[in-house]
Amino acid sequence: MNKIFEYDYTNLRKKISADYGSVNKFAKAMGVRGSTMHYRLNNKVEWQQDDVYKACTLLMIPKCEIGNYFYNAKVQGN
Predict the structure, then answer these.
(1) Is the pTM of this model over 0.85?
(2) Whether 15 contacts 69, CB under 8 Å
(3) I need a labelling partner for 45 at 20 to 30 A (CA). Which of 2, 30, 32, 77 fits?
(4) Residue 76's CB: how many other CB atoms inside 10 A?
(5) What is the rounded CA–CA span in Å between residue 40 and residue 7?
(6) What is the pLDDT of residues 26-63, one digit of tens each?
């Protein structure tokens, strides 16, 4: 099944880097493998709602800003 669009996780990557120093350290805090986190950030594996909530808690992302980190659609060229 093809995806309709992908998400741009640039803001999330920056927040992870600022707060944890690396994706792997953040993945450990999330309780997942580094490879799993890289897959999520590269649109290979979808984020589950529970994981979004946990990530927001760890990164202290307010509910009103979740969309800025998790739901920015990438612009697709034709």
Answers:
(1) yes
(2) yes
(3) 77
(4) 8
(5) 10
(6) 999 999 999 999 999 999 999 999 999 999 999 999 99
Helix (H, G, I), strand (E, B) or coil at 7: strand
Work out the number of other CB atoms within 10 angstroms of the CB of residue 72.
Answer: 15
Sorted by sequence, the CB contacts under 8 Å of residue 40 that are 6+ apart come out as 9, 46, 47, 51
User: 52 and 61 in contact (C-beta within 8 Å)?
Assistant: no
- For residues 61 and 30, what is the distance between their CA atoms, to the nearest angstrom? 15
Structure tokens at 4: 């309709």
Tokens of 36: 């799993």
